[in-house]
Design a protein that fits this description.
Layout lengths: L3 H16 L7 H5 L1 H24 L2 H17 L6 H24 L14 H5 L3
Length: 127
């Protein structure tokens, strides 16, 4: 199961490859070229934001944050409105998932860098 950063990198690489030689693509692809370029811009912006968040956190701070969120989950009571309970638990689980993604990468990549600065070999380590 790939983490969210690896999935994002994969999407960026796929869109970049698709944008190479657009003249060799179908007419439908060329008609959607602007939308693909915007998709790439959006994906790269999201990656940059994730890198900033990732690089500011240490393993210790991530573990502490995870414990804190797990305590919040335990404090949720099923007697709350079902909707509020579900939304809160889903949000907390999403945060824990991101933290777990970061924790799985931190030993191999203490700091992330701009995609352009990775070699092909380094990028493959994400997968």
């Amino acid at each position: 199961n790939k983490n969210s950063i690896a999935k994002l990198i994969r999407k960026i690489l796929i869109v970049e490859q698709q944008l190479e030689n657009p003249e060799n693509r179908s007419i439908y692809f060329r008609m959607a070229l602007e939308s693909k370029q915007f998709e790439l811009y959006t994906l790269k912006k999201k990656y940059t934001k994730l890198v900033d968040i990732y690089n500011l956190r240490s393993i210790e701070s991530l573990l502490e944050e995870k414990r804190h969120i797990e305590e919040k989950i335990k404090s949720l009571t099923p007697t709350m409105s079902r909707l509020i309970y579900s939304i809160a638990k889903s949000s907390f689980n999403s945060q824990i998932s991101e933290i777990n993604d970061f924790l799985s990468l931190k030993p191999k990549f203490p700091k992330l860098k701009a995609l352009e600065k990775y070699t092909e070999e380094e990028l493959l380590q994400f997968f």
